[in-house]
Amino acid sequence: MTSLSQILKNNRPRAVLALADGTLFKGWGFGARGITVGEVVFNTCMTGYQEILTDPSYHCQIVVMTPVQIGNTGVNPSDEESGKPWVSGFVVKESSRVTSNWRALEGMDDYLERHGITGIEGIDTRALTRHIRDKGAQAGVIGVGDVTGDELVEIARAWGSMEGKDLVCEVTPPEEYAWNEGPYHPLSGTGPAGDRFHVVAMDYGIKRNILRELSGVGCRVTVVPAGTTAGRILERKPDGVFLSNGPGDPEPVEYAVSTVREILGKVPIFGICLGHQILGLSLGGKTFKLKFGHHGGNHPVKNVSTGRVEITSQNHGFVVDPDSLLKAGQRVEVTHVNLNDGTVEGIRHLEMPAFSVQYHPEASPGPHDAHYLFHHFVEMMEKNRAKYLGSGV
To answer: Annotated catalytic, 273?
Structure first.
């Protein structure tokens, strides 16, 4: 009987994943050939690999999937979270040769090859995941073809770390645009866009499903580049401002922090993921890098006010330091806490209409336990609008 390793050997080029600490994992390549470098992180989602591939928050990262087989359902345009894959590389135990889903228009292998994304399969992803947990996320290189481990290790070491890198400027759009799609359903397609509230969404690397969910709760959304000034935002007279997810270290994104600081108290603000971190920085807080980050669709988070535990979708490597917010003298409270490691998962200002969460309430992929946060944003905008109407402004 032919073994899986023999099948892979007969049909794929040899490949190597080299980590900056010198550890090598040998397997077979899929997708594009060549060499790619990035920070190696693992994701525990059982489904939704296409949403993961196309999430701009994964820019400059090589993603390791922990499920055994990836690729069976192929890819389709409706499940893309942006216009292309943003991962630097993709690591799986087994890349499915068979695509079996009525929505699929292309196989994952062909899709990655078409977009120039290099992958490696046939390695022990459990051992790799344990290594990242023990040693921490670090730079790595996938080399497909005629490469040696030593040269790949040197490339990884030269690449350095995520810390200090402003990656938002590489994923944000060049100009603003209007979003006009509501929530998506596989059978009926996208619903109508909302128009009850006008929300300006700061695009630090936004996912499409966030925009759909905002639209689904009645928001007309204008998406603007990360470098948009506070004056430009306020000229549009929005009912609320949304701060999106995005890649990399939040502290170098000083222009976004400055903008948020200027609009605080003038309009309701809701932030997700990197947007949460930028809100924290604008309030005088600090952020720090986690050992291996949170990436997956099964992270337990406790809502401090209700005691309810939400199972959440997460994708981040940095978090807000709660002590730094207290030292800054801000009237801020922690609203959500990660039950795995106690890190901050949500904050809100006690005097100004501003709140944020570290995780992804829009899911895609992941559970929908935290969808109520979009409705909370709407309630905040309703109260703010009523306050100004009542004052005659």
So the answer is: yes
Pairing verdict, β 332-338 and 240-243: unpaired
Tokens 């990360």, located at residue: 226
Instruction: Report CA 278 to chain centroid distance, whole Å.
Output: 14
165, 317 contact by CB (below 8 A): no
Active-site entry in 51, 219, 273, 310 = 273
End-to-end CA distance of the chain: 78
* Token pair in block for residue 37: 């470098």
Tell me yes or no: is domain 168-391 CATH 3.40.50.880.
yes
369-384: pLDDT as tens digits:
999 999 999 999 999 9
Query: What is the second-level CATH architecture of the domain 12-159?
Result: 3-Layer(bba) Sandwich (3.50)
pLDDT one-digit tens code per residue, 177-191: 999 888 877 766 777
Residue ranges of the domains in the chain?
12-159, 168-391
Catalytic residue among 51, 80, 251, 362: 362
Same fold, 12-159 and 168-391: no
Residue 362 is a catalytic residue: yes
219: annotated active-site residue: no
192-230 pLDDT per residue, tens = 777 899 999 999 999 999 999 999 999 999 999 999 999
